[in-house]
Task: inverse folding
């Protein structure tokens, strides 16, 4: 419904203004805006007139083209784990029977909080098992009435921050190093971090582990969660880039919509390198020119609609 609404807005602009316009050049090569058309050799250009108010309502946003940085990345996969320095395995001090349980799986505890009461087999006196650090109970392996011996009864872990452990295979290893920026995708959220260190695995493992920290103050993440990551291995300065979402396919050409005042003109561009978010522009656009970044597809739809009307 939102798209239909925006198209209706642009349709009203077409009726109330001049709509998509074919502006013929005069003998001096001047276009409809009074300037010389240096971008195209054809005798006419197509553009759309949209008032500032309507463009604002339709969410059409533009920005100035300029220099930027392309990032070459390597994709890796892994999982979230607690920091080993923040894990405590709690066992009974003396063997005995569990009389009371104070903490359940998933509970948050503070250092010194009671976890369980155990009656010693030797003294027949109860004693309290307490949390050695603040964290979350991620394992509980005992119930009331059972015997506590040498087994781990509780595992407590600090979950802020967590570590992400990423698998780095031999073909990637030469380009991965501590300090590199890594963008971690947890499915419903993205996190920026840096590789802290690289951990060798046993001789039978085909990969090493790259570790990075993720802040988890709101407890939205949990150990064991699978994640993907993009590790930035190279940053390339480029004299002219645009955002990929600005690109539209019009008449079998890649175009961006260049804004001059209330006029929006489709401009064919020659593309260079890309990192998936930004693309280098080799020709067709100049630094400083404003191009539509958001909702450029609405302008494309209006031009195509006009072309169909002209054919009829």
Result:
């Amino acid at each position: 419904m939102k798209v239909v609404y925006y198209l209706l807005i642009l349709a009203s602009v077409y009726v109330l203004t001049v709509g998509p316009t074919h502006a013929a050049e005069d003998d001096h090569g001047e276009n409809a805006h009074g300037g010389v058309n240096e971008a195209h050799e054809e005798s006419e250009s197509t553009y759309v007139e949209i008032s500032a108010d309507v463009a604002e309502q339709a969410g059409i946003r533009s920005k100035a083209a300029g220099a930027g940085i392309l990032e070459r990345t390597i994709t890796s996969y892994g999982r979230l784990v607690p920091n080993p320095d923040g894990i405590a395995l709690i066992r009974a001090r003396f063997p005995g029977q569990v009389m009371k349980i104070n903490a359940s799986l998933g509970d948050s505890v503070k250092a010194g909080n009671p976890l369980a009461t155990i009656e010693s087999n030797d003294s027949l006196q109860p004693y309290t098992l307490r949390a050695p650090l603040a964290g979350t109970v991620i394992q509980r392996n005992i119930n009331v009435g059972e015997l506590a011996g040498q087994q781990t009864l509780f595992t407590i872990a600090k979950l802020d921050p967590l570590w992400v452990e990423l698998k780095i295979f031999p073909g990637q290893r030469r380009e991965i190093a501590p300090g590199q920026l890594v963008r971690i995708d947890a499915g419903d959220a993205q996190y920026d971090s840096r590789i802290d260190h690289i951990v060798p695995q046993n001789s039978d493992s085909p990969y090493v582990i790259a570790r990075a920290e993720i802040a988890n103050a709101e407890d939205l993440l949990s150990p064991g969660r699978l994640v993907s990551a993009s590790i930035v291995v190279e940053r390339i300065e480029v004299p002219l880039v645009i955002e990929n979402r600005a690109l539209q396919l019009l008449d079998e050409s890649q175009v961006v919509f260049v804004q001059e005042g209330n006029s929006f003109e489709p401009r064919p561009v020659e593309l260079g390198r890309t990192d998936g978010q930004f693309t280098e522009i080799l020709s067709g656009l100049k630094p400083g020119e404003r191009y539509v970044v958001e909702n450029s597809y609405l302008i494309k739809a209006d031009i195509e609609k006009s072309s169909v009307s002209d054919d009829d």
